[in-house]
Amino acid sequence: MKKLLISLLVFTFINIDAQWYVMQFGVKDISELNEDQLKIAFDIAENLVVAGKILTIIGIPVIICGSIVMYNTSNEGFYQHEFEHNVDIAARFLGGCLITFLGIGLEGAGIPILASGASRKHIISVQLEKFNTSYIPSIGIRINF
What we know:
The chain has 145 residues and is an all-alpha fold. It has helices spanning 2-15, 20-25, 35-76, 83-128.
């Protein structure tokens, strides 16, 4: 039974075509997109890059702030005061932990979003080059000897 479930899962994932251009535009290959569709996809990819940068940039100070709160409360000590004071210190330490984990989550989401957006942006810009038809008219001189 276990082998059957594993083989079904493997074949299910092999048959799924989950590229972003298939889901978004319904084409099998990115080269089938026209110029307008590529420009829309390029704008979306730029937005992904910006969102990834924002999440990554915000995540670092959040991690630092949470770590500072944890460090300061751990220096006060959990066992040096009476029970009422320890609850307050433990609550602040737990708050610092939560802030740190929030920053780690922001980093964990921001870095892949940034990487996938940059990758899409590069792929789309390569595909957009085939629609770039600008050229400089010139005159060539040929001399045969």
